[in-house]
UniProtKB/TrEMBL annotation, chain A:
GO terms for biological process: glutaminyl-tRNAGln biosynthesis via transamidation; mitochondrial translation; regulation of translational fidelity. GO terms for cellular component: glutamyl-tRNA(Gln) amidotransferase complex; mitochondrion. The gene is Gatc. GO terms for molecular function: transferase activity. Pfam families: GatC. NCBIfam families: gatC. InterPro entries: Asp/Glu-ADT_sf_sub_c, GatC. Keywords: Transferase. The lineage of its organism: Eukaryota, Metazoa, Chordata, Craniata, Vertebrata. It comes from Malurus elegans. This is GATC amidotransferase.
Automatic annotation (TrEMBL), chain B:
It comes from Malurus elegans. This is GATA amidotransferase. One of its GO terms (cellular component) is mitochondrion. GO terms for molecular function: ATP binding; glutaminyl-tRNA synthase (glutamine-hydrolyzing) activity; transferase activity. Keywords: ATP-binding, Ligase, Mitochondrion, Nucleotide-binding, Protein biosynthesis, Transferase. InterPro entries: Amidase, Amidase_dom, AS_sf, GatA. The keyword Transport does not apply. The keyword Ribosomal protein does not apply. It comes from the Eukaryota.
Amino acid sequence: QKVSVEVLDHLEHLALVDFRDSEGVERLQKAIQFADQLHVVNTDGVEPMDSVLEDRWCLYLREDNVTEGNCTKELLENAREKVEEYFVAPPGNIPLPKLEERDSFLQGS
Amino acid sequence: GCPKRGLRSQVSAALKEGRVTPTELCQRCLALIRSTKFLNAYITVAEETALKQAEEAEERYKRGQPLGILDGIPIAVKDNFNTAGIETTCASNMLKGYISPYNATVVQKLLDQGAVLLGKTNLDEFAMGSGSTDGVFGPVRNPWSYSRQYKEKSVPKSHSEDKEFNWVITGGSSGGSAAAVSSFTCFAALGSDTGGSTRNPAAHCGVVGLKPTYGLISRHGLIPLVNSMDVPGILTRSVDDAAVLLGSLAGHDPKDSTTVQDNFKPFELPNLTDVSKLSIGIPKEYNAPGLSSEILALWSKAADLFKNAGAKVVEVSLPHTRYSIVCYHVLCTAEVASNMARFDGLEYGHRSDAKESTESMYATTRREGFNDVVRGRILSGNYFLLKQNYEKYFVKAQKVRRLIANDFVKVFRSGVDILLTPTTLSDAAPYMEFIQEDNRTRSAQDDILTQADTCAGLPAVNVPTALSERGLPVGLQFIGRSFQEKQLLTVAKWFEKQVQFPVIQLEEVKRHDNDVFHHQKSASFS
């Protein structure tokens, strides 16, 4: 089955990257087809594995002591747009347009 | 006679005895980097800081107080490790110009021991790929393309510049690091390994490539691809050197909660003479589709080598091997989708000029910053993580992962100590041929031999074994039990001694600087 246009659009919104062209969509189709090979494997009664270290190691919480910080200058250095100690972003809560309106909105390179 | 690579007390001893100074060593390496620029192994060469580090090392040697065996030793680091004050790009537009504010733990450890950081090496963009051909700074060329061994076997062409067309890839994604070590511009390099990215280029470039057990070496500062599989990799010219690097890097890091808390004790490798107590497993599924008959024969010869030396050599089965690539594909893209979410242009990295909204800025930034391969994986990953697909794909892959890991557990429990497998399906392909297929297909084909043990988190090492008919390196892989690097490397060292892999005869380098080449050729540092 082909991936529906709605799902493609949904993915672009979630991932905030675009397929760019039919080749990108084709790439996804192939990736799904490839992944479908998993379904022949019998995994009845098998628990999913999060980490190979599950037996060996307990994720621990360290003591809540401040050990480092005060690095505002370093953290801001690599940001392109900032004001005082703030990272500056364009206005939020403006959703990306739907697929139909897309072409005029994203003036990407 | 010909200096053997596995001998300790080469460059380190030379430094200690004052036969060569750290600054001389550093300058020679920098000169060699310049004259091998066409390899495109380095993205950034940190000449000033390297010389300064070398001078400091020299002072310590003069006082008779070197920090250890790595003091003054030139090394290179793959450009996906953060290095304070030095650009870290991951070979991507997304991080061009990004100057790390901190050192990755492994980098810090090396610097603390006096290693001289020559520069950052080239890779596939964000370590996604098996050719080191898909980065924004262009592909890395395998130094063996310019070796006498390869040229002798090449069909002579009419024009003199045809060598440009015949050059072969390094493999990937740590191709720059492998090329740097292979061409003598450094004594060791850091790579990263998620699906074979250290071992694959090690095999193609004729160097030792070690992927330690997951959880042994800190990933703090390694820009992540797959958090549950990534491991810093070690590339050197000898197994002994790999053990030295491992000793200086392994151990719990409070900044990386996935490192085990056990105390790690650095070790020296014994010179194994009796292999009769060893049991070597040959997994039959690693006779994979596409495996060249040449490598199959070499693998078989290696098995016989162990057998004739008295070891027990048995065929074993890892039945879920062929699903490891699919499993990896789903888990990798899913984790990548999550890990790449941090690149939004706000705090660091590339930022687009879009000002209409935060979302449009994010979207165009990522569109401009990532190449097709990266974007493709992000989109696939997001697909597998959709609510309607989560169980079917992501959780399913996690279950298959357990089956793969269990395969190894069963085999090691049956009395096998070490597994012996090929590392790659064939020797290095010419670049023009390699780029005919797209990245994902290539990775799927090439990773098959180095993938499964990453799913299981096991240590594995590529040992250069012989030259192919085309005069290019072929390596074989040893896979060991979790945290049993000492046993793994001991066996690898024995094998290295048996096969006596030839030294690369670099014509290009010889022509440019006879003296430099001569010194580098004979030295492993440990």
